[in-house]
Automatic annotation (TrEMBL):
Source organism, top-level taxon: Eukaryota
Residue ranges occupied by any Carbohydrate kinase FGGY N-terminal domain in the UniProt entry: 5-66
Pfam families: FGGY_N (PF00370)
Molecular-function annotations in GO: kinase activity
UniProt-listed GO biological process terms: carbohydrate metabolic process
Name recorded for this polypeptide: Carbohydrate kinase FGGY N-terminal domain-containing protein
Amino acid sequence: MSKFIVAVDIGTSTIRACLYDNAARLQSIAERRVALEYSGKEDAHQRVELDPDLLWRRFTEVVKEASKA
């Protein structure tokens, strides 16, 4: 049975999963955009948030997609 490593990068606007084999060779990459939610006025008090449910869905999507390779 082959062993693989999945590395996930959760950035501000994208989430990416990379699948590596046991020799650390890149096998596949999957990436999705993550929508930011802005609240408040467009000044110093504006907040930017990530929807945790959307982030989890995108996480599972990229891991599944990268693992299919």
